[in-house]
Amino acid sequence: MLYSRLRPLPRRHPLPNSDSDSAPRPDFADPETEADSDESSEDLFAAFLPHLFPDDAPSFHGNPGQHLLYSSPRYGDLEIMVPSYPGQSDKRSQEIAEGLPRPDGQVTQIEEGRKLFAHFLWSAAMVVAEGVEKADELEASGQLKSTDEVAMWRVKGERVLELGAGAALPSVVCALAQASTVTTTDHPSSPALSGAIKFNLDHNLRSPKVSSTSTTVTIQPHEWGTLETDPWAVQNKASFNRIIAADCYWMRSQHENLARTMCWFLAPGGRVWVVSGFHTGRAIVAGFFETAVQAGLEIERIYERDLVSGYEDGREVRREWMAQREGEGPENRRRWCVIALLKKRDE
After folding, report:
1. What is the pLDDT of residue 12?
2. Which of 138, 144, 163, 263 is 20 to 30 A distant from 190 in Cα terms?
3. In whole angstroms, what separates CA 110 from the centre of its chain?
4. HSE of 273 in the Cβ direction (CA atoms, 13 Å)?
5. Is residue 44 part of a domain?
6. Which residues, 6+ apart, have CB-to-CB distance to 305 below 8 Å?
7. Rounded distance, CA 257 to CA 108, Å?
8. Interatomic CA distance for residues 241 and 276, integer angstroms
9. How far, in Å, CA of 60 to CA of 124, rounded?
10. Cβ neighbours of residue 143 under 8 Å, at least 6 residues apart?
11. Domain of residue 172, residue span
12. What is the CA radius of gyration of the chain?
């Protein structure tokens, strides 16, 4: 099961005199003396919920400012900081992630939602990480064939761009898998840019527990659709062989900007990984695919993956992608995600 790789670290309080105005500083006090035992017990119980209620699998993990441990069979334990804003309520973040209205009954504003959607590690990001790990392991052992299902996740020597990175787990894993370059981006207002992305990349890529990587890693603020007027975007047009967009589809108003951004940055022969859960419904994800095709992209491969059942005979539990499924309830829908490989239509 994918979720078995993840567990919360004990809650830790920042050292005094922190000057951070956003995400917690990475230098924490001793968790053995500072951890809140009640909160730690609650986190551990929450970590087992996917096992107790598998049909109601979570789409996201962690709370603002929390540290999570992602256990990679290929790279060992990776510590992932979840971004946060100062004074942010854990409960309010979850409500917004689930699409609930504000306490005053008003619909959540786009900018508020954009900010708070960064405050989790999304299951879609774990799907990307797992795929890259498996491809890297098979390639290192000389067993990876171009016809293998996992070959689509190969990144060694490739130029990788992650859009809407949030906690940036896929970027970390792509760097460990020896991508040539990894560029991690998020909206300029995202809390992830205030410390979490840098911590996650620095901490895990320079840890003595993992082998060193020669990958060039950069962090870049970027707003989807801001292309011709962005010097960085102009300089890097058609520069990336692999583009990651994991759970970036909940805002319909941004679908066109996101699709245009993918087309702009995608190099000839490159591919886009689209991975998304259905926590905001199937229709909104299906709508993105329609927009992407209109923008000049082509769906090379698409399927749904069961996030709970894991593997049968060494292969993922999959089923055909469907824009609508008769009689599908929200609980069952959450255990599935869609995985698609996109390319430019004229190639």
Report:
1. 54
2. 263
3. 20
4. 32
5. no
6. 127, 316, 317, 318, 336, 337, 338, 339
7. 21
8. 20
9. 8
10. none
11. 115-344
12. 19
Q: Is 0.70 surpassed by the pTM of this model?
A: yes
The answer to whether 271 touches 318, Cβ cutoff 8 Å, is: no
Under-50 pLDDT residues of the chain: 13-39, 41-42, 44-45, 47-53, 88-102, 105-116
Under 8 Å between Cβ of 110 and 253:
yes
> Is 130 within a domain?
yes
Residue 320 belongs to domain with CATH number: 3.40.50.150
| 8 Å CB contact between 298 and 286 | no
User: CA angle 92-58-95, nearest 5°?
Assistant: 15
Q: Taking the mean position of all CA atoms in its chain, how far away is CA 317?
A: 20
CA distance 200 to 212: 15
Q: What is the DSSP string of 248-306?
A: --S-GGGHHHHHHHHHHHEEEEEEEEEEEE-TT-HHHHHHHHHHHHHTTEEEEEEEEEE
pLDDT at position 55, please?
Answer: 52
Rounded CA separation 95/20 (Å): 25
Query: Which one, of 99, 121, 125, 94, lies nearest residue 110 by Cα?
Result: 99
Decide if 159 is inside a domain: yes
DSSP structure class, residue 178: T
User: Based on the structure, what is the number of domains in the chain?
Assistant: 1
